[in-house]
Amino acid sequence: MRLDTFRVEGFRSIRDATLELRDGVTLLIGANGAGKSNVIGAMELLGRVVDNSFSEELLRMGGVRAQLHASPTGDDAETICLSVASKPRRSVLHDGDRFVNRYSVCLQASDDDAPLIRETTEIHNIDRYKTGLKTPYGLSDRSVIRRRAEESSGITAATHIAAMAGGVRVFHVDDTSPQAPALQRADEADNLTLHDDAANLAPVLLRLKTHDRPRYDRIVRSVRVVAPFFDDFVLQPLGGHVQLRWRQIGMDRVFHGRFLSSGTLRFISLATLLLQDSMPGVVVLDEPELGLHPVAISQLAELLTAAAEHVQVVAATQSVPLLSCFAVDDVVLVDRTGGTTTLAAPPVEALDAWLDEYTTGELWEMNLLGGMPGPDIVPPPREQGAAS
Protein backbone atom coordinates (compact mmCIF):
# COMPACT_ATOMS: atom_id res chain seq x y z
CA MET A 1 0.00 0.00 0.00
CA ARG A 2 1.60 3.25 -1.16
CA LEU A 3 1.18 6.55 0.65
CA ASP A 4 -0.27 9.58 -1.07
CA THR A 5 0.18 12.31 1.54
CA PHE A 6 1.80 12.89 4.92
CA ARG A 7 0.58 15.90 6.88
CA VAL A 8 2.38 17.43 9.87
CA GLU A 9 0.86 19.97 12.26
CA GLY A 10 2.47 21.62 15.27
CA PHE A 11 5.86 19.90 15.16
CA ARG A 12 9.02 21.96 15.67
CA SER A 13 9.34 24.40 12.74
CA ILE A 14 6.27 22.96 11.00
CA ARG A 15 2.98 24.71 11.70
CA ASP A 16 1.00 22.89 9.01
CA ALA A 17 2.58 21.25 5.95
CA THR A 18 1.65 18.36 3.68
CA LEU A 19 4.18 16.20 1.87
CA GLU A 20 2.92 14.68 -1.38
CA LEU A 21 4.83 11.45 -1.84
CA ARG A 22 5.91 10.23 -5.26
CA ASP A 23 5.26 6.63 -6.21
CA GLY A 24 9.02 6.02 -6.29
CA VAL A 25 11.66 8.37 -4.87
CA THR A 26 10.81 11.67 -3.15
CA LEU A 27 13.78 14.00 -2.63
CA LEU A 28 13.58 16.80 -0.06
CA ILE A 29 15.86 19.74 -0.81
CA GLY A 30 16.27 23.08 0.89
CA ALA A 31 18.63 25.42 2.67
CA ASN A 32 20.16 24.65 6.06
CA GLY A 33 17.54 25.24 8.74
CA ALA A 34 14.61 25.06 6.33
CA GLY A 35 13.17 22.06 8.16
CA LYS A 36 14.14 18.97 6.15
CA SER A 37 15.25 17.13 9.28
CA ASN A 38 12.02 18.11 11.01
CA VAL A 39 10.00 16.49 8.23
CA ILE A 40 12.15 13.37 8.66
CA GLY A 41 11.71 13.57 12.44
CA ALA A 42 7.93 13.73 12.07
CA MET A 43 7.97 10.65 9.85
CA GLU A 44 10.06 8.81 12.43
CA LEU A 45 7.64 9.81 15.18
CA LEU A 46 4.71 8.43 13.16
CA GLY A 47 6.35 5.02 12.83
CA ARG A 48 7.21 4.99 16.52
CA VAL A 49 3.61 5.72 17.53
CA VAL A 50 2.39 2.56 15.83
CA ASP A 51 5.14 0.37 17.32
CA ASN A 52 4.65 1.98 20.75
CA SER A 53 8.20 3.30 21.10
CA PHE A 54 7.13 6.96 20.87
CA SER A 55 7.37 7.65 24.61
CA GLU A 56 11.06 6.74 24.69
CA GLU A 57 11.74 8.71 21.52
CA LEU A 58 10.02 11.86 22.82
CA LEU A 59 11.81 11.53 26.15
CA ARG A 60 15.12 11.32 24.27
CA MET A 61 14.19 14.49 22.37
CA GLY A 62 13.35 16.44 25.53
CA GLY A 63 9.66 15.73 26.00
CA VAL A 64 6.49 16.61 24.12
CA ARG A 65 6.46 20.32 24.90
CA ALA A 66 9.98 20.77 23.52
CA GLN A 67 8.75 19.52 20.13
CA LEU A 68 5.70 21.79 19.83
CA HIS A 69 5.72 24.45 17.12
CA ALA A 70 6.49 27.91 18.51
CA SER A 71 4.97 30.62 16.33
CA PRO A 72 6.60 34.06 15.89
CA THR A 73 3.09 35.50 16.33
CA GLY A 74 2.60 33.73 19.66
CA ASP A 75 0.08 31.25 18.27
CA ASP A 76 1.98 28.25 19.63
CA ALA A 77 0.80 24.70 19.01
CA GLU A 78 -0.64 22.67 21.87
CA THR A 79 -0.62 19.32 20.07
CA ILE A 80 1.37 17.53 17.38
CA CYS A 81 -0.83 15.95 14.71
CA LEU A 82 0.45 13.52 12.08
CA SER A 83 -1.77 12.20 9.29
CA VAL A 84 -1.22 9.81 6.38
CA ALA A 85 -3.46 8.84 3.48
CA SER A 86 -2.95 5.95 1.09
CA LYS A 87 -3.15 6.11 -2.65
CA PRO A 88 -6.41 4.62 -3.97
CA ARG A 89 -6.36 0.83 -4.20
CA ARG A 90 -8.95 -1.49 -5.71
CA SER A 91 -10.69 -4.06 -3.54
CA VAL A 92 -11.58 -7.42 -5.08
CA LEU A 93 -14.04 -7.92 -2.21
CA HIS A 94 -16.03 -4.82 -3.22
CA ASP A 95 -16.46 -5.22 -6.99
CA GLY A 96 -13.17 -3.48 -7.71
CA ASP A 97 -14.15 -0.24 -5.95
CA ARG A 98 -11.27 2.05 -5.00
CA PHE A 99 -10.55 2.60 -1.33
CA VAL A 100 -8.40 5.17 0.48
CA ASN A 101 -7.19 4.52 4.02
CA ARG A 102 -6.42 7.42 6.34
CA TYR A 103 -4.80 7.50 9.77
CA SER A 104 -4.14 10.42 12.07
CA VAL A 105 -2.68 10.72 15.52
CA CYS A 106 -2.48 13.77 17.77
CA LEU A 107 0.06 13.84 20.58
CA GLN A 108 -0.27 16.02 23.64
CA ALA A 109 1.57 16.35 26.92
CA SER A 110 0.20 15.15 30.23
CA ASP A 111 0.77 17.23 33.36
CA ASP A 112 4.22 15.64 33.77
CA ASP A 113 5.02 16.03 30.02
CA ALA A 114 4.45 12.35 29.27
CA PRO A 115 2.99 11.82 25.78
CA LEU A 116 -0.65 10.89 25.29
CA ILE A 117 -2.11 10.08 21.89
CA ARG A 118 -5.52 10.24 20.25
CA GLU A 119 -5.88 8.20 17.04
CA THR A 120 -8.45 8.33 14.24
CA THR A 121 -8.85 5.95 11.31
CA GLU A 122 -10.89 6.35 8.15
CA ILE A 123 -11.86 3.89 5.43
CA HIS A 124 -13.23 5.63 2.33
CA ASN A 125 -14.80 3.96 -0.70
CA ILE A 126 -14.18 6.86 -3.08
CA ASP A 127 -16.20 5.30 -5.90
CA ARG A 128 -19.44 5.13 -3.90
CA TYR A 129 -19.33 7.68 -1.09
CA LYS A 130 -18.34 11.33 -0.69
CA THR A 131 -16.98 10.76 2.80
CA GLY A 132 -15.36 7.85 4.56
CA LEU A 133 -16.16 5.91 7.69
CA LYS A 134 -14.22 7.52 10.54
CA THR A 135 -13.42 5.75 13.80
CA PRO A 136 -12.02 7.98 16.58
CA TYR A 137 -10.26 6.39 19.55
CA GLY A 138 -9.90 7.82 23.02
CA LEU A 139 -6.87 9.35 24.69
CA SER A 140 -4.25 6.71 25.51
CA ASP A 141 -0.60 6.21 26.28
CA ARG A 142 -0.44 3.31 23.80
CA SER A 143 -1.50 2.84 20.18
CA VAL A 144 -5.04 1.46 20.07
CA ILE A 145 -4.81 0.70 16.35
CA ARG A 146 -1.69 -1.39 17.02
CA ARG A 147 -3.58 -3.39 19.65
CA ARG A 148 -6.58 -3.84 17.35
CA ALA A 149 -4.30 -5.11 14.59
CA GLU A 150 -2.58 -7.58 16.92
CA GLU A 151 -5.93 -8.88 18.13
CA SER A 152 -7.25 -9.39 14.58
CA SER A 153 -7.44 -12.98 13.39
CA GLY A 154 -7.10 -12.04 9.72
CA ILE A 155 -6.72 -9.09 7.38
CA THR A 156 -8.88 -6.25 8.69
CA ALA A 157 -9.09 -2.47 8.38
CA ALA A 158 -6.95 -2.24 11.52
CA THR A 159 -4.20 -4.44 10.07
CA HIS A 160 -4.20 -2.45 6.82
CA ILE A 161 -3.93 0.90 8.60
CA ALA A 162 -1.37 -0.28 11.16
CA ALA A 163 0.80 -1.60 8.34
CA MET A 164 0.41 1.65 6.39
CA ALA A 165 1.34 4.00 9.24
CA GLY A 166 3.83 1.66 10.92
CA GLY A 167 5.54 1.02 7.60
CA VAL A 168 7.11 4.49 7.61
CA ARG A 169 10.65 3.86 8.89
CA VAL A 170 13.59 6.24 9.21
CA PHE A 171 17.07 4.71 8.98
CA HIS A 172 20.19 6.19 10.60
CA VAL A 173 23.39 4.65 9.24
CA ASP A 174 25.68 7.65 9.73
CA ASP A 175 27.50 6.28 12.79
CA THR A 176 30.75 4.80 11.49
CA SER A 177 32.81 5.11 14.67
CA PRO A 178 34.42 2.02 16.26
CA GLN A 179 31.34 1.89 18.50
CA ALA A 180 28.92 1.94 15.54
CA PRO A 181 26.02 -0.53 15.95
CA ALA A 182 26.85 -2.11 12.58
CA LEU A 183 30.30 -3.14 13.86
CA GLN A 184 29.21 -4.87 17.06
CA ARG A 185 28.55 -8.57 17.62
CA ALA A 186 24.90 -9.34 16.83
CA ASP A 187 22.54 -12.22 17.44
CA GLU A 188 22.74 -14.56 14.45
CA ALA A 189 18.97 -15.15 14.60
CA ASP A 190 18.14 -11.43 14.39
CA ASN A 191 18.31 -11.46 10.61
CA LEU A 192 14.86 -10.89 9.09
CA THR A 193 15.23 -7.22 8.15
CA LEU A 194 17.84 -4.51 8.74
CA HIS A 195 17.36 -2.46 11.90
CA ASP A 196 17.07 1.31 11.61
CA ASP A 197 20.63 1.69 12.97
CA ALA A 198 22.04 -1.30 11.00
CA ALA A 199 22.88 -3.06 14.27
CA ASN A 200 22.10 -6.45 12.72
CA LEU A 201 23.96 -5.82 9.46
CA ALA A 202 26.12 -8.96 9.73
CA PRO A 203 23.22 -11.36 10.51
CA VAL A 204 21.17 -10.00 7.60
CA LEU A 205 24.11 -10.40 5.22
CA LEU A 206 24.71 -13.94 6.50
CA ARG A 207 21.07 -14.91 5.91
CA LEU A 208 21.13 -13.50 2.38
CA LYS A 209 24.41 -15.27 1.63
CA THR A 210 22.95 -18.56 2.82
CA HIS A 211 19.39 -18.36 1.48
CA ASP A 212 19.35 -15.73 -1.29
CA ARG A 213 22.75 -15.84 -2.97
CA PRO A 214 21.80 -13.75 -6.06
CA ARG A 215 20.68 -10.88 -3.83
CA TYR A 216 23.78 -11.19 -1.66
CA ASP A 217 26.02 -11.20 -4.73
CA ARG A 218 24.34 -8.02 -5.95
CA ILE A 219 25.19 -6.31 -2.67
CA VAL A 220 28.82 -7.43 -2.99
CA ARG A 221 29.01 -6.17 -6.59
CA SER A 222 27.60 -2.80 -5.52
CA VAL A 223 30.23 -2.49 -2.79
CA ARG A 224 33.01 -3.35 -5.26
CA VAL A 225 31.91 -0.47 -7.51
CA VAL A 226 32.69 2.04 -4.76
CA ALA A 227 35.52 0.04 -3.12
CA PRO A 228 37.37 -1.91 -5.87
CA PHE A 229 39.73 -3.46 -3.30
CA PHE A 230 36.83 -5.24 -1.57
CA ASP A 231 36.62 -9.00 -2.13
CA ASP A 232 33.86 -10.39 0.09
CA PHE A 233 32.37 -10.42 3.56
CA VAL A 234 33.57 -12.98 6.09
CA LEU A 235 30.52 -13.97 8.14
CA GLN A 236 31.21 -16.81 10.55
CA PRO A 237 28.90 -17.28 13.56
CA LEU A 238 30.53 -17.85 16.93
CA GLY A 239 28.46 -18.73 19.96
CA GLY A 240 25.24 -17.69 18.25
CA HIS A 241 26.61 -14.27 17.28
CA VAL A 242 28.18 -12.88 14.13
CA GLN A 243 30.28 -9.78 13.48
CA LEU A 244 31.06 -7.86 10.30
CA ARG A 245 34.42 -8.89 8.83
CA TRP A 246 35.76 -8.76 5.29
CA ARG A 247 38.59 -9.77 3.00
CA GLN A 248 40.60 -7.64 0.57
CA ILE A 249 41.33 -8.76 -3.00
CA GLY A 250 44.74 -10.42 -3.24
CA MET A 251 45.16 -10.90 0.51
CA ASP A 252 44.49 -13.87 2.79
CA ARG A 253 44.11 -11.71 5.87
CA VAL A 254 40.63 -11.15 7.31
CA PHE A 255 39.84 -7.59 8.47
CA HIS A 256 37.43 -6.41 11.14
CA GLY A 257 34.70 -4.08 9.94
CA ARG A 258 36.29 -1.16 11.79
CA PHE A 259 39.07 -1.17 9.18
CA LEU A 260 36.59 -0.09 6.51
CA SER A 261 36.53 3.61 5.70
CA SER A 262 33.56 5.59 6.99
CA GLY A 263 32.16 6.03 3.51
CA THR A 264 32.53 2.34 2.65
CA LEU A 265 30.85 1.18 5.86
CA ARG A 266 28.00 3.61 5.34
CA PHE A 267 27.57 2.45 1.75
CA ILE A 268 27.52 -1.22 2.82
CA SER A 269 24.68 -0.43 5.23
CA LEU A 270 22.78 1.49 2.54
CA ALA A 271 23.29 -1.21 -0.09
CA THR A 272 22.07 -3.90 2.31
CA LEU A 273 19.06 -1.81 3.29
CA LEU A 274 18.04 -1.03 -0.29
CA LEU A 275 18.71 -4.48 -1.76
CA GLN A 276 17.39 -6.71 1.03
CA ASP A 277 14.28 -8.81 0.48
CA SER A 278 12.22 -7.38 3.33
CA MET A 279 11.73 -3.62 3.46
CA PRO A 280 9.16 -1.36 5.14
CA GLY A 281 6.59 0.36 2.96
CA VAL A 282 8.36 3.73 3.14
CA VAL A 283 12.15 3.93 3.58
CA VAL A 284 13.25 7.34 4.88
CA LEU A 285 16.85 8.60 4.83
CA ASP A 286 18.38 11.90 5.96
CA GLU A 287 21.27 12.94 3.70
CA PRO A 288 22.36 9.39 2.74
CA GLU A 289 25.12 10.83 0.54
CA LEU A 290 27.21 12.06 3.49
CA GLY A 291 30.81 10.88 3.27
CA LEU A 292 30.36 9.19 -0.11
CA HIS A 293 32.61 9.61 -3.14
CA PRO A 294 30.86 10.89 -6.32
CA VAL A 295 31.07 7.37 -7.79
CA ALA A 296 29.38 6.01 -4.68
CA ILE A 297 26.68 8.69 -4.93
CA SER A 298 25.91 7.60 -8.48
CA GLN A 299 25.68 3.99 -7.30
CA LEU A 300 23.48 5.10 -4.40
CA ALA A 301 21.08 6.72 -6.87
CA GLU A 302 20.80 3.40 -8.71
CA LEU A 303 20.06 1.60 -5.45
CA LEU A 304 17.39 4.14 -4.47
CA THR A 305 15.76 3.72 -7.87
CA ALA A 306 15.89 -0.07 -7.62
CA ALA A 307 14.33 -0.05 -4.15
CA ALA A 308 11.58 2.29 -5.36
CA GLU A 309 10.31 -0.45 -7.66
CA HIS A 310 9.05 -2.21 -4.52
CA VAL A 311 8.63 0.48 -1.85
CA GLN A 312 8.52 4.25 -1.56
CA VAL A 313 11.72 6.09 -0.71
CA VAL A 314 12.00 9.54 0.89
CA ALA A 315 15.44 11.15 1.18
CA ALA A 316 16.53 14.58 2.33
CA THR A 317 19.63 15.68 0.45
CA GLN A 318 21.94 18.58 -0.29
CA SER A 319 23.91 16.69 -2.94
CA VAL A 320 23.98 18.16 -6.44
CA PRO A 321 25.34 14.88 -7.93
CA LEU A 322 22.55 12.86 -6.30
CA LEU A 323 19.88 15.30 -7.48
CA SER A 324 21.28 15.12 -10.99
CA CYS A 325 20.36 11.43 -11.12
CA PHE A 326 16.64 12.22 -10.72
CA ALA A 327 13.92 14.21 -12.45
CA VAL A 328 12.54 17.54 -11.27
CA ASP A 329 9.22 15.80 -10.63
CA ASP A 330 10.90 13.74 -7.89
CA VAL A 331 11.79 16.88 -5.91
CA VAL A 332 9.98 18.62 -3.05
CA LEU A 333 11.22 22.06 -2.00
CA VAL A 334 11.55 22.66 1.74
CA ASP A 335 11.57 26.35 2.62
CA ARG A 336 11.14 28.44 5.73
CA THR A 337 8.91 31.48 5.56
CA GLY A 338 8.03 33.58 8.59
CA GLY A 339 9.56 30.99 10.90
CA THR A 340 7.45 28.18 9.45
CA THR A 341 8.52 25.28 7.23
CA THR A 342 6.69 24.96 3.91
CA LEU A 343 6.69 22.18 1.32
CA ALA A 344 6.12 22.75 -2.39
CA ALA A 345 6.77 21.22 -5.79
CA PRO A 346 9.27 22.98 -8.09
CA PRO A 347 7.84 25.22 -10.84
CA VAL A 348 8.19 22.56 -13.55
CA GLU A 349 6.33 24.48 -16.27
CA ALA A 350 8.51 27.55 -15.75
CA LEU A 351 11.60 25.37 -16.27
CA ASP A 352 10.67 24.03 -19.70
CA ALA A 353 13.40 26.05 -21.42
CA TRP A 354 16.09 24.54 -19.18
CA LEU A 355 14.98 20.94 -18.57
CA ASP A 356 16.52 19.52 -21.75
CA GLU A 357 19.88 21.17 -21.19
CA TYR A 358 20.49 21.12 -17.44
CA THR A 359 20.29 18.36 -14.85
CA THR A 360 18.10 18.69 -11.79
CA GLY A 361 21.20 19.24 -9.67
CA GLU A 362 22.44 22.02 -11.94
CA LEU A 363 19.04 23.72 -11.84
CA TRP A 364 19.10 23.63 -8.05
CA GLU A 365 22.66 24.92 -7.91
CA MET A 366 21.58 27.86 -10.10
CA ASN A 367 18.61 28.46 -7.78
CA LEU A 368 16.11 27.87 -10.56
CA LEU A 369 14.29 25.25 -8.50
CA GLY A 370 14.19 27.26 -5.30
CA GLY A 371 15.19 25.89 -1.93
CA MET A 372 18.59 27.58 -2.08
CA PRO A 373 19.78 30.52 0.05
CA GLY A 374 21.27 33.62 -1.53
CA PRO A 375 20.47 35.65 -4.63
CA ASP A 376 19.09 34.08 -7.77
CA ILE A 377 21.65 33.07 -10.38
CA VAL A 378 19.73 32.53 -13.56
CA PRO A 379 21.80 31.88 -16.69
CA PRO A 380 20.10 31.84 -20.06
CA PRO A 381 19.10 28.48 -21.52
CA ARG A 382 21.82 26.82 -23.54
CA GLU A 383 21.41 27.15 -27.26
CA GLN A 384 20.29 24.00 -29.01
CA GLY A 385 23.32 22.05 -30.19
CA ALA A 386 25.75 23.94 -27.96
CA ALA A 387 28.37 21.93 -26.11
CA SER A 388 27.52 21.23 -22.51
From TrEMBL:
Keywords: DNA damage, SOS response. Pfam families: AAA_21. Residues 25-323 form the ATPase AAA-type core domain. It comes from the Bacteria. GO terms for biological process: DNA synthesis involved in DNA repair; double-strand break repair; SOS response. InterPro entries: ATPase_AAA_core, P-loop_NTPase, RecF-like. SUPFAM superfamilies: P-loop containing nucleoside triphosphate hydrolases. The keyword DNA damage applies. One of its GO terms (molecular function) is ATP hydrolysis activity. This is AAA family ATPase. It comes from Micrococcus yunnanensis.
